[in-house]
């Protein structure tokens, strides 16, 4: 904050300090529940857990998970949202190249690395997200927000007539990534194949938008597998 001459900062009020502490405690409790859910998903043969077991694993009262999330579906969705947030945060810590293609490949690599860090957990979470629910999830906008990070004005590699539709790229990249994950969850794509599969999928999305000289690069990479 820049202060003008004679101005002084106002100390936080008791209410502001109380609200901040309450928010911090709330986040700590939420994270404890989500961490416990991930441990249970990882250790369970059925990739499932009861809310009572969850509360015990988290070291909180039985009603705490309900108070913070409402139900098990919301907890699974919160784990998914946290994973996407971690992908974005990890991507932001990397030294990012200037080109759109390389930025997309970097995010693809980061995303796959985090998914495979806890494959049992993420198979269960992603698989659960595919089940119909009366309340739609927010995975699509969250995923679009993640893949929008590769764009951020980096349109020099796009064909001139593709630039007006560049805003659709994050959605298509999100769809391609989710498609790869769906087949991975089903066991049709192995852990060791996932990164290459995602790279090829996003390459095909980019192929329709980049300029001719960059198409050659993508086609060469696709041909090499």
UniProtKB/TrEMBL annotation:
<dbReference type="InterPro" id="IPR009057">
    <property type="entry name" value="Homeodomain-like_sf"/>
</dbReference>
<keyword id="KW-0804">Transcription</keyword>
<keyword id="KW-0805">Transcription regulation</keyword>
<protein>
    <submittedName>
        <fullName>TetR family transcriptional regulator</fullName>
    </submittedName>
</protein>
<feature type="DNA-binding region" description="H-T-H motif">
    <location>
        <begin position="50"/>
        <end position="69"/>
    </location>
</feature>
<feature type="domain" description="HTH tetR-type">
    <location>
        <begin position="27"/>
        <end position="87"/>
    </location>
</feature>
<dbReference type="GO" id="GO:0003700">
    <property type="term" value="F:DNA-binding transcription factor activity"/>
</dbReference>
<dbReference type="Pfam" id="PF00440">
    <property type="entry name" value="TetR_N"/>
</dbReference>
<dbReference type="InterPro" id="IPR050109">
    <property type="entry name" value="HTH-type_TetR-like_transc_reg"/>
</dbReference>
<dbReference type="GO" id="GO:0000976">
    <property type="term" value="F:transcription cis-regulatory region binding"/>
</dbReference>
<feature type="compositionally biased region" description="Polar residues">
    <location>
        <begin position="1"/>
        <end position="19"/>
    </location>
</feature>
<dbReference type="InterPro" id="IPR001647">
    <property type="entry name" value="HTH_TetR"/>
</dbReference>
<feature type="region of interest" description="Disordered">
    <location>
        <begin position="1"/>
        <end position="20"/>
    </location>
</feature>
<keyword id="KW-0238">DNA-binding</keyword>
